Each structure stands twice: as C-alpha cells, then as structure tokens.
Amino acid sequence: MALYAGIDCGTQGTKVVIVDSTQGVILGEGNAPHRLISQANGRREQEADWWIEALVIAFRQAVTHAGVDAREIHALGVSGQQHGFVPLDADGNVLHSVKLWCDTETAEENERLLQQLGGANGSLETLGLRIATGYTASKILWFKTHHPALWAQLHTVLLPHDYLNFWLTGERVAEYGDASGTGLFDVRTRRWSKTAVDLIDDSGRLWQALPPLKSAECCIGTVRPAAAEKLGLGPAVRVSTGGGDNMMAAIGSGNIEAGTLTLSLGTSGTLFAWSAAPVTAESDMIAGFCSSTNGWLPLICTMNVTSATTAVQTLLNQDLTGFNALLAQASPGAGGVEMLPFFNGERVPPLPHARASLHNLDSDNFTRANLCLAVVESATYGLRYGIELFRRQGIEAREIRLTGGGARSAAWRQIVADVMGCPVVCLKAKETAALGGAIQAMWATMLADDPRRNATALLAELCQRFVALDEATRTPPNAGRQAQYETLYQRYLQRLQQTYPEVQL
Length: 505
Known about the structure:
It is a single chain. α15 (410-420) crosses α18. It is built from 18 helices and 25 strands. The longest helix has 25 residues, at 368-392. The chain has 3 domains: 1-82 and 216-241 and 430-467, Nucleotidyltransferase, domain 5, CATH 3.30.420; 83-158 and 174-210, Nucleotidyltransferase, domain 5, CATH 3.30.420; 254-427 and 473-500, 2-Layer Sandwich (Nucleotidyltransferase, domain 5), CATH 3.30.420.40. The protein is of the alpha/beta class. It starts with a strand and ends in a 6-residue tail after the last helix. The strands form 7 sheets. Strands 1, 2, 3, 6, 14, 15 and 16 form a 7-stranded mixed sheet that branches. Strands 19-20-18-17-23-24-25 form a 7-stranded mixed sheet, with helices on both faces. The protein has a 3-stranded antiparallel sheet with strand order 4-5-8. Helix content is 40%, strand content 21%. β23, α15 and β24 (424-427) form a beta-alpha-beta unit.
C-alpha cells in the first residue's frame, strides 16, 4: 500500500480521506465540526485553533476507519475555505480570530477599495476580477483600521489552507489558486499586485507580509515532529501546496482540462471550468481565479439553489421524498407558473436586494406540483445564465459533473441536462475537495521523486484513476424537452428583465 491523506478544512467542519494509491480507492473518511462566531453586524469568524482540534479528530477517525497505520502515510494535501484572513506575528501566533469568506462586516472597506481601484472596470483591469466583500483584501483593511496595535505586530498574511500548511510544516507559503481569491493578486500575471496592496498599506508592512508563491505540483516541506506526533504520522511525511476548496474540488472532480464543467447543486450554486489561459472576462460576474493545477479556474456562484427548493419544501410540509414525488407530477413549464427564486438576493446577476416572486398564477396552475417544479426550474435557469456567461468567453462543456444535495434527485438531474443541453453525471466521492488534496499530494510527491515525468500527463493519469463517475446517474438531455426548455428559459429571461430592468442579457 502507498497511502496518502487529503484534508478539507471547510466552514462547517474538517473532512479527511485516506487514499491507497496502489488500489486506487478511498480506504477511510473522517470528519469533525467547527463552531462559528456569528453576529448581527455580519461578523463570521472562527478560531484557528478550532481547525487544528477538528483536524486531529477527523484525521484519527479516517485512519481508524481505513484500518491502517498512520505511519504508512506518504504525503498530505490540504484544501481550505477560500478568502479567509489569518494574521500571524513573527513567532507564528495568530493575532485575531479568522474572518471567513462569509463575513460581511467589512462591506464598507470593500466598497472603499473598489472605488480606489476605479470601480468594477478598474478592478478588472488591475486584478483580472472584481473584488467582493468576501475576499481577503477588505478584511486586512478592516484589521488595520480597527486593531492598530495588532497591525503593528503583523508579520505574515495567510489564508486558511495556508495556515494548516504552516501548522503542519512550519512553512509560510501560498499557492496561486487560493491567492487569486484574495483581491491582492493579478490573476493574469500570477503575481501579488503591488497596486492593490498599496491601497491598503503603502508602508511596505503588508507587502512584506505576503508569503512567497509556490506552484501547484510542489511539495512545500515535511510535517514537523510536533504535528506528526499529534496525527500519528511518521517522520518524513511530505505536504503539497494544497489550495482553496473550489480549486481542490476541481481536481477531485477531474476538472483539469477544457470541456468539463463542475456544477454544485448546493445551498448556493457554483460552476467552474478549467482553462489553459486567464479568463479576462468582460463581465465582473465571472471570478477568473487560478487553478491549483497551474492553470485557471473561472468560477460563477449563484445564491439560490437548494436554499430555494428547501424553502418551498418547508412551506408545503414535505420531506425530500414527498417533494420529489410532487416534482414528478408536473410537466415542463409548471403549467405556466414562473418564479424568480431570489430568497437570498442574487449574486449572478448582481441583484443583492432582490426578492423572490411568483408570476402568472391562476386557479388551474396554482398547485403544489407546479410550485415544486417552478422553484427547481428557476434555480436551474439561474445556473444556465451562468453557463451562458461562460460560453461568451469561449468556455463550452461536453459534460457537466454534478455535486451537492440537489444532484441526488434524478428528476432534477434530468432538468439540468435538458436546460443546459448537455449530459450530466454525478461523482461517486462526496468529499471531492479532500480527494483533490490527496490526488495533489500524490502528484507532487511523484514529481519530486522523478522530476523528468510529464506533470500534465501524470495529473491526468491520477484523476483518471481516482475520480470515479457514478455512471448510474448519467443523464443525457431529452431532445424534445431540451427544445421546450430553450423556449422556457427565454421566457424566464424576459420575466427577469421585466422585473429587474438593470439586468443585462
């Protein structure tokens, strides 16, 4: 056996998978929850120590579940929630609770930085993407403004996965994928942006605090003795660069070449595709991130997917089985019932203050089945809107790989295939980010042991071996329904623009 571990430090918890590279299988999994500091002013924080506690628990669980000796593990790869801010002093102490991607307390600081960059167009020109409140940059400005004494001690800026790498190895480094979501990084040149950094702090302190960048196929170091002891590891375990959760999920879903699109039907909807060149989108709705495979990973996020369907499910007092049964009773178009599913506002298109609404109701079509179908269709149309933005950038999909809770519904998978006009399939592994970490760790160690190997071909070989598609879920579009849904999608766009004239189609 040749064992590798993948770690995913998410918002809700830490997941760990143990992979046997000889058999090509996941042997064991573990998970442990995280607490969350949440306040009405938008504050969303966690303590870095909580991540370490969860990592130790989840790691031991995974090793026990796998029935292996942790000392046999060769290498680790870490995935982490994007956009967080972990400030360290010179001794490696964390100076403040970690502000997370979902923290909105820094909205004012983000708006200030965006204006200084010259608005959305200026941000696109300087960084290749539009900075958002969730990004790291505004958190750093907030920290500097509100905690000047701690700011004076700042030595290193790390992202969540960088911090776990630091705890494991003692190395203070970053990698291109996760760094591209900071708002301090030019995604086209793959360098820290002195222009953006100086807007926050022109004294040189912040510039010096940014860690050196490492390529995705590198090992950054070996696990230090104290961390090895806590995890039960041997003395020479290597650690790969790791990456942000979306970047590592791309590896874990085999999304490492053009033509594949990963789509998450989760609380919100996320779509991303691999690109060999930077996507300098005309639209600021596309986040043109770098990948953690030395390419690029343009990404779009919508706000209302299973959050919208769950709202209707709860209203109708239905469990998931009941909801799906009702869904099957309705025909495409939901009898004319139209919904704009903006229960949480919307990010793509940018309608932060939008509200959900129902349209075209009458005494005949106002049924539970039509209501269920209308919310599923409208959530899917929102994702189609995102795919159309990709298409304008020349990004096409031959296959859509589905993740998230909504993907478990056969009816919803069919609707996605019909609306997108593209075959869809689910992945067998549920923890794609953690699996991506393990695959990246294999990739990096194999290249370190034999630098003459072709890095691109090796990664493709590893993904081919470890990313298993659930062929039982493969769903091609139905030609008749695809044509129907093309008309219905255009109707949705008309309704969207009638209600929100500011939306650009």
